[in-house]
Structures are given as structure tokens and as C-alpha cells.
Hints:
Elements lengths: L10 H9 L3 H23 L2 H17 L10 H20 L29 H16 L2 H12 L4 H8 L3 H26 L1
Helix pairs in contact: 1-2, 2-3, 2-4, 3-4, 4-7, 5-8, 6-8, 7-8
Amino acid sequence: MGMIEFKRVTDEELMFRFQNGEEACYEELVDRYKNKLLNHIFYYMKDRESAEDIVQDTFIRVYVNKDKYKEIAKVSTWVYTIANNLAKTALSRSSKMNAFSITGKDGETDYEIKDKNSSTDEPVLKNELNDIIMSRIDELDEKFKEIVLLRDIDEMSYEEIAALLQIPTGTVKSRLNRARLNLRDALSDYVKKMK
């Protein structure tokens, strides 16, 4: 079966066929996920090489553990869970959790403030603002950081996050709201200083 014909095949069907010996289905899954996963893990690690290592390790584990996948979860949930666990292990080894800058994707306030006085794209103000947001995110509990990352960077649905973290959808929403309120407070303090 040619790669072109895979376009209409779900991730779950690809996984099932890979479990039954179709190696090309594994290659298609890698193609579908490698860039998304790299971006996702990069926001954890803040280091491209480390992120690439984790993505490679994730796909090795998908390959080796293919028979452990059961269709009770989406393939995306399973793959992200493997990647997240590897990233957390790597971070605990290096004992640092880097924060990330964020933009609200739900019609919320955009967390980026433009410098009206700047005629160039020199992101001096944005860098200072990012530092403030990053330090504030650093103060959040791990459980809040993770949800902000999955929602605002990976643009996962509440349902996907709930499945991935094995918590109710309502908990996802309430944690996200709490994290965003915290960030908004940091930004409003910053804006006041700018006046």
C-alpha cells in the first residue's frame, strides 16, 4: 500500500496494522508526529538536541512496545504520554524545569505586548516580558505548568488533555483558569510599571 493511501487512515488503524507487521504504517506514524512532538518537548527542555533525543527515544519505545498499545486510548495520547515521561525523567536528572512563553488560544488576552516605540522588530520589551512570564510560570505547580503547555502550545482539546493526564475535563479547565489568572496578574503588574 502506497504512502498516499495513508492520508485517510486513522492513527489507530495505522497502529493496529503496524502491530500486524506493516512497517510502513510505523513510518507514517513517525511522519505524523515527529514535528509536533519535537515542538512539544522543546518547550519542556529548551534545548533542541535534548528534545530531538527524547523524540527519537519516544519512537523507539513506540516501536519496541507496539504490542502494549491497546485501543482504549488514542494513539496521540499514548505517544505523548511516552514522550512526557521521558522528558520528565531527563529534567529530573538535570534538575531544572524551564518555563516557556505563551499565547492564549481561547480568545483570551494575548500574552504578548507590542512595543509601540520600536520601529524595528528588536524584541527587547518582549524578552523582558517573557522573563517575567517565565518566572511566574516557574512558580506554578507542575500540574498547572503542564496544562498550560498542552493547551496553549500544543493546542490540545480539553478532552485530549484529560485523557493524557488521566484527570476529569473539569479539572483541566479549572487548573488552566488558575494558571492564566496567575499569568494575567504578572502582566498587569508589568503594564502598570510601563505607564
